Amino acid sequence: TFFVVAPDNACPGEKFPTIFLWHWIGGKAADWINFTGQAVVNKYRFIAVMADGTTGVFKWPFTVLDGPIMEAEYKLFDDMYACVAEQFPVNTSCITSLGVSAGGLFNSQLTQARGQYFSSSIVISGGTGAVVLPWVGTGPHKVPMIAFWGGPTDNLAGFSFDVLMKDMEAGLQRDGHYFIECVHNCGHAPPFFKPPPGGGSPLDPLFNFLLNHPYGLPAGGSPYKTAGLPVGMPPWCNDKGVGSAPPSTDPVSNCPAAICASPDTPIATPSGERPIAELRAGDLVYSVDHGVVKAVPLLDVGRTAVFNHHVVRVELANGRVLEVSGGHPLAESGTFADLAPGSLMDGEQVRS
Length: 352
Hints:
CATH architecture of the largest domain: 3-Layer(aba) Sandwich
Distance between the termini: 30 Å
Number of domains: 2
Largest sheet: 8 strands, mixed
Number of helices: 8
Order of helices and strands: EEHHEHEHEEEEHEHHEHEEEEEEEE
CATH superfamily of the largest domain: Alpha/Beta hydrolase fold, catalytic domain
Radius of gyration: 21 Å
Oligomer: single chain
Low-confidence stretches: 306-311, 331-338
CATH topology of the largest domain: Rossmann fold
Shape: globular
């Protein structure tokens, strides 16, 4: 299954850049609508194409054992591209692929296998090497890319995305690609981007990379080489090669607030409810997939200390004000977890 969102106010003769999006572990194609809905594609003037992954726990193939499945997914891309190009006015000189997590691992392979089509590519917490298929190159066309991940703590399900992304970057640098390295140091999570002034998407720097890198640039070339990285590109990005990204000096303000569960939070498993503190990666837990309850292996359990450093204000429905410490436990309807108010605040508005 795949979805397409295209501008609904096309001008006569207008052709649109197109971006193919590959979702993360536990995600689905429709989740991209939060970032590529109608208002967004109307503003940026591109077509968004989003597919549902179907291969195993990770949904997308990318390992050394996935050869035949990889070819089937590449054929799916070919069919999607042909279908969209037949029904919509596609600007074939501006085609991008963007993947996150498992989708990023798949996109690292797709960019190589179908590099002749892509004017640019964006990999967020993906990469190559180890049990993932290696970097072998995109052929004569040196696709400009963004390599974007969460630093040394970007780990999930036994994968070190820090290692995998650096392996991919080494291949890009060796083969003469232009690429931007972005390391946000938030671990395996997207950083918290604010939309640009005047409105737009939190993914504004990534969408502009698509629009500013049409097909036909010289190998290793980019308009950013002479003009510099554009306003809005995070300060923890650089285009001077492997290891050039400045460290994110204030990761607390860049990273999204985590919703954490207390150690005794009960989790449903085939053997009954168990405290989350007892669970380890690989244990079976119950999950709901499109309304169907399934027993699936737990991918990862993160653990971190919570400190009571801040006092926050919570306005009650009756207009009175309740003051609590940032780590004060709150029960939220619909969850088993105790939530800390400090984890629900971004400094400007409540996030829930």
